[in-house]
């Protein structure tokens, strides 16, 4: 355990040093977070503009969902994109060999090697929006509610990670699923809105197949004090299940890895 | 003339064969463009849609057309150019008596040709799900729509190529595409028909090239009323502005090109 923490420390400090070589990217990222947020709020306002709603959620409650989406998007840019996006390249060029030879768990190395600070503005903006919108929606969360929400957010993060990792791991068979992960990212756009705004068939799809509901709607309901135990349990179960799945699949995929010729 | 035709044929057939290798991936890519259909689900469920001048059938046709337009206007030249410039693969291309961007253009067109079956399948599925409640526009309408979609693709390719030239000055220029994607996403009509915008926002959107890339071709394709000549003129004007800019940056950039890598 201590070895893993120490490795994580040196992984992240070295990638931080590398990323800081490109200070202009900080500005681009900041602008992109603000632009995306502004665009999403305007889009949401189109739905609410003339006194209509979206799936029975009030304006402020819908903003909480958007805040959680922004938070997760920031987390994606910080950890998932730089790490899991690189797996395909490791497979294609054969540098996965060197990863497998390291005396450390290969899934851990592949998932935690890089850290990009440029997602942090998104994380902060998301947290700020959640806090602000939840207060305006009249929620006064107690400490247990806050802890529960944090737990649910953690489970969203784990579900997202597992989905992404599973997709990236299939590159061992397909070699070039170059931007398969982009598919995921664009489908998750559906998470900007509360899941009850979709027609019933899509709602089922977004709950069971592509768990968008667990990613944003369930944590949002928790902070608004509307969480039901069954949803909380389902979310935790989903996280556990998908994490196990990613682990099993990776073990299985490695057996098919044939390396690349130079 | 004869030489150009032969060049085009060879480039296209080579790129098509190359893209066919990646058809699994391209199927995934086609899925990643589902955003207009997700938005269709939201809009048709939302009360706000009732206030629009578009009826439910027109709304469905619009977003289905926007989906088709989006599928055939996907541009990724900045990513591939960044990679080629960084790894020095651009150098041999520069030695050939052919502007390297023709090669990229051929790759895009070939990729779109591979998409056709997937797009048809999805359109058919949505059509059947929508129970064919709305008639299909006459062939002359959608043939014209497809033609304008190609023009929209060329315009978007040109716009991204201009941004791509930043690769000569920075190693991480592809990040700029993230910025460019924001107005494209929110102002082009991809997430909401322009009718839904408040007048001021609509004027702002129409002052940018983005509505020409989705809204205009999608409207044509869906058989809605459009100012055909006005739309074509706008496209031509943007092209006349961007093309010299691209050539200018290309020349200035080439002088800085250091041919990194092997």
Major sheet of chain A: none
Parts with pLDDT < 50 across at least 5 consecutive residues of chain A = none
The largest sheet of chain B, given as strand count, sense and whether it forms a barrel, is: none
* Helix segment tally of chain B: 13
Q: Compute the number of strand runs of chain B.
A: 0
> What value does the average pLDDT of chain A take?
85
| Helix content, binned percent of chain A | over 70%
Return Rg of chain B in Å. 19 Å
Sketch the topology of chain A as an H/E string, one letter per element: HHHHHHHHHHHH
The total of beta strands of chain A comes to 0
* Overall pLDDT of chain B: 85
Please give the domain count of chain A.
1
Given helix and strand content, the structural type of chain B is mainly alpha
Structure description:
The complex is a heterodimer of chains A (262) and B (262). Chain A contains twelve helices and no strands. Chain A has one domain. Chain A is an all-alpha fold and 262 residues long. In chain A, helix 3 packs parallel to helix 7 (143-169), helix 7 packs antiparallel against helix 11 and helix 7 packs parallel to helix 12 (229-254). Chain B has one domain. Helix content of chain B is 73%, strand content 0%. Chain B has 13 helices and no strands. Chain B has helices spanning 2-21, 23-32, 35-45, 56-71, 77-87, 90-95, 100-129, 139-164, 175-187, 199-206, 210-213, 215-221, 228-256. The longest helix of chain B is centred in the middle third of the chain and has 30 residues, at 100-129. The mean pLDDT of chain B is 85. Chain A binds chain B through residues 22, 24-25, 28-29, 31-32, 35-36, 39, 42-43, 46-50, 52-55, 174, 176-180, 182-183, 185-187, 189-190, 193, 197-199, 202, and chain B through 22, 24-25, 28-29, 31-35, 38, 41-42, 44-48, 50-51, 170-172, 175-176, 178-179, 182-183, 185-186, 191-192, 196-198, 201.
